[in-house]
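Hi R.,

Here are the chain sequences for the assembly we discussed:
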Amino acid sequence: MVIVMQADATRAEIENLISRLKEVGFGVHISQGTERTIIGALGGNREALAQQAVEALPGVERVVPVVHPYKLVSREFHPERTVVRVGDVVIGGEEVVAIAGPCAVENERQLLETAQAVKAAGARVLRGGAFKPRSSPYSFQGLGEEGLRLLALAREATGLPIVTEALDVRTLEQVATHADMIQIGARNMQNFELLREVGALRLPVLLKRGLSATIEEWLLAAEYIMHEGNEQVVLCERGIRSFETATRNTLDLAAVPMLHRLSHLPVIVDPSHATGRWRLVEPLSLAAVAAGADGLIIEVHPNPAEALSDGPQSLTPTRFATLLQKLAPLTAAMGRSVSHPSGVMPQ
Amino acid sequence: MVIVMQADATRAEIENLISRLKEVGFGVHISQGTERTIIGALGGNREALAQQAVEALPGVERVVPVVHPYKLVSREFHPERTVVRVGDVVIGGEEVVAIAGPCAVENERQLLETAQAVKAAGARVLRGGAFKPRSSPYSFQGLGEEGLRLLALAREATGLPIVTEALDVRTLEQVATHADMIQIGARNMQNFELLREVGALRLPVLLKRGLSATIEEWLLAAEYIMHEGNEQVVLCERGIRSFETATRNTLDLAAVPMLHRLSHLPVIVDPSHATGRWRLVEPLSLAAVAAGADGLIIEVHPNPAEALSDGPQSLTPTRFATLLQKLAPLTAAMGRSVSHPSGVMPQ
Amino acid sequence: MVIVMQADATRAEIENLISRLKEVGFGVHISQGTERTIIGALGGNREALAQQAVEALPGVERVVPVVHPYKLVSREFHPERTVVRVGDVVIGGEEVVAIAGPCAVENERQLLETAQAVKAAGARVLRGGAFKPRSSPYSFQGLGEEGLRLLALAREATGLPIVTEALDVRTLEQVATHADMIQIGARNMQNFELLREVGALRLPVLLKRGLSATIEEWLLAAEYIMHEGNEQVVLCERGIRSFETATRNTLDLAAVPMLHRLSHLPVIVDPSHATGRWRLVEPLSLAAVAAGADGLIIEVHPNPAEALSDGPQSLTPTRFATLLQKLAPLTAAMGRSVSHPSGVMPQ
Amino acid sequence: MVIVMQADATRAEIENLISRLKEVGFGVHISQGTERTIIGALGGNREALAQQAVEALPGVERVVPVVHPYKLVSREFHPERTVVRVGDVVIGGEEVVAIAGPCAVENERQLLETAQAVKAAGARVLRGGAFKPRSSPYSFQGLGEEGLRLLALAREATGLPIVTEALDVRTLEQVATHADMIQIGARNMQNFELLREVGALRLPVLLKRGLSATIEEWLLAAEYIMHEGNEQVVLCERGIRSFETATRNTLDLAAVPMLHRLSHLPVIVDPSHATGRWRLVEPLSLAAVAAGADGLIIEVHPNPAEALSDGPQSLTPTRFATLLQKLAPLTAAMGRSVSHPSGVMPQ
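And here is the predicted structure of the full complex:
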């Protein structure tokens, strides 16, 4: 770390800082300017003397970290890209993987109809919420275990592996029994107990970005999971909160190439939650893939106006198939591929 | 709700919407303008036909909710202010209540020394984290159950009731055994399982605002707790995330009078986390009380530079005592009071 | 507009409001619910009784506008897309137009070298700042009129039309004498005097989005220009301010398809200012085109480390040529085209 | 500045950087760690080699500035507080100064009535907009020069000095002829030409914070003014843009003590624009003063529901008088004073 001293820091304050740093093994380099003293501290025990402790020392103006606070997720020490397997589907390879399905599992007919339709259109993984985090206690909270059972049924019927959200450490085991991939939602990105628990599983994890999480905080959340031994983590950008209200959230597509530089983990994009409007899902899906996304997760409902949650952002199965058809030449132009329907879609 | 139709909505789309609304009991009022049709829908079953479902109907441009989505926390149906009791301390009454203590419980000496000092200075409740939510898995995570034991010891030694954070449904019972008030931290404001569980307890709850939570989402989180039967909820503004990086967060003091208008629950302010800098804690504590806050929660550490977390935002006990002395004439000017040391503080 | 009355609005307050609305010609529709009264007001004189005036009336809780506040820029009344001509270049047609050049004009050699290189690579318009808005009075402020002269020289040498920023009503005429297109920068998006003045010109305008401007405010800024009679406006998304600091700004690509729905004006994207990092310019350029952008404006400098402003976000001419080569198959996949170098670029 | 090199920076890249730094006079200190090299560069010519140029050099990961980019506004070199005089009113002294008046000057009667009422209530300066920046070209744009004439009339009638906004370099002279203090609005905070022009005047300036301006950018805007020789600058916090929509803007009261630490300039607060709701103006006025504000600027209108702009945030004269009465004991508690009506206000 680099420590910038206050302009009026005393000699004693500077010396006190230096001896504290040396105590825990830091190499100390002093730059004495006319206006200020700057101290470089490298190689010491950062757990023994954290940045925050240094910032609280008298005479210190601020501390600038030099190395990223994460290790396991960093590409610096792991240059080759990680590939995550969900059933027989590979995320992080040449193929752009489409994950699709309803926001919430509502009943057997809705789910099976959607599962078959998205499979026919080219989806490689089925999504569907059994446990739903809802802002209001009066909103539909998901079918719970019954929803998990229906998802397993849909997997049997279609062969698609399933991804579904775990909300809670207590129901995690239940979810893990049925799911092929565990989703950690945006609201739980810093539910550290849950992160530790999915880290102890041997199932791939889809880690959504928190609504106001910086890229660094997001990577630290992934670090929690990897730190427990689970290396099968996929990051999912789903929009952040800004002042703009024309869309539900603000999709931060710069995060995709930025994450690919900082980390070896695959990155996918959720244009449905990011925008909250189905008409924007197609252009932003194309944009996400052009930015380098390894996959997309898209809400599809056979009848959006009947959906128990998030209808306005759901595509119909036909629109979803059209989207994958439009993606095909674009992925080809990017040197990648996408599974898509071969015939012409009815409009 | 009010439904604004698209400019090119067809007669059939409008009629379809109206019949859907009437089916579930809404009274429907149609305003036919030259440019657009607007439909007022009042009094129907909002669970049967949610705003989102209406938004997904063809021809609908947008839906404007008319009533707030929360009920139990609302002042509309509960005009008198709620008073929350923590041990024998009353939050929401005439007294401005100071809650103080270290960010994290570190060891017996640190905690007891701080507890006695903040009590002497005028604090009415002791705070201290046993389970700490930390962005990085490599940061100090708290003493856990041992921390709870030390808090109980500090209560015995000082008589101060204690508030401490519950991170997880599994350790909640442990926390509830020792604590006089359960804190739900900003990162868990939408951990709905945890909200439901503290809702089922008969202990007062300190509900911090999420980093990017709107006031409405925050009140809905409180609604989750009240919906389970626990009416002893105190709201705590602790800064939101904005583009400004000069302070750790942006303290939204307008939330204090706004919440007092919308809700009957008491509101306190955490200037330590809001700013991340101890020098700003005093002026913002004064400002919070002037804005109408019912209390303050402030980090105090006997030696901020040795703190295992959040040192730069901690006051020393002496500075905390000085703060309460400065608060005293201000609370008097506001027609309220605050407990404070009577003597002159050493500088 | 739709007016939601307070729950405790009196009969007199409601009647007062209704008579005010009728006075200025509104058709009034009353929805009387059990909890609240809602009033629809359509077709009246909005200038005579603005939303804000209604909101200030006693008994009114809030007012919801029904129609967009802009007219001339709206696609509702002008469904066909506008095409803007800069010299012989068409923005808003089938071709994706690349605008490129240095952030600031520094000297003749730098500008001519860059102009020739970007022309060879496929750029259709040359950009370069003569008047530079700089946060600090101590930063390089641009060459001013000398910069304009050099831009004109570069146009002569290359045949590329030029776009450059006008900062001020007083130097606008000077800029207009030399430029083929006037840029209004993000900081001036709500400099209404300047908007009016460029509205009175007959030169095309590149209107950048303000750092914290909503899409609606941005379209209203364009409305100012069109209202004075200038219909040649191109909108430029260049990133907005959010809490994320990993990139200079947060590029809001959802704005591109959203603007295409709301407005008939062409939309281009500036990935250089949006990210502040040249390594992110290529992936976000591809993403912008995939989202439907009609063009790109990109900073190119022959030697970014010598640039007097914004070096870290500038591409070298070679990297710019590589970018256009990568764009070519993507635009083809989108049914569009882009001018690009035919040969292989040296790496 | 401190320069953090990339982990894989080559020896040649490091040496190139060092020689560039030495060329322009920097003292260079090298810290060689196991993971990275850090270079401290102090005392050189920052105009000759800006931070941005260094960031663009190969091998550089990032550059951390050490000293603030502003000088004249900084308290570091000017520890005593500046006092600004508007007529015979002193801003930045012991008295908390109330500035009040209508958002826009509408007509003689409205202005004189308001001026007399706010004077009677304790206002020391009259505010009123003659030139109004409005998001929409269809909104009332102010009376222009006629508004200035009426303001001068109101000054004559009441003896209150007047502050009014200058929108444009061309009308600045007109404004300066009539006004006692020039307001630079939030939208013009980075209109650098206008800043330079008011810097050349010898009239005090009220510089509002931009909607998304950091504290550093705001101080740099003040630096522009002081750099031209005008030292009479008052900073005005008026709310920033965040995701929260319950209030018009988010009032950042932490900016008040932060500015008092960083700068010697007086700081006032505008609770009317910050909240957009008159009911919040009183509690936030009290809070602003408790946070250390040197004054308040408040919208007052004799009949808010008739106001041509910003009615919902205007106080009536009676409510304004009540506010100053409530402020009186609070300012006394803070060791300051405020002018206020001595009698009891009619409710």
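Chain A has eleven helices and 15 strands. Chain A touches chain B through 47 residues (CB under 8 Å).

Let me know if anything looks off.

Best,
T.
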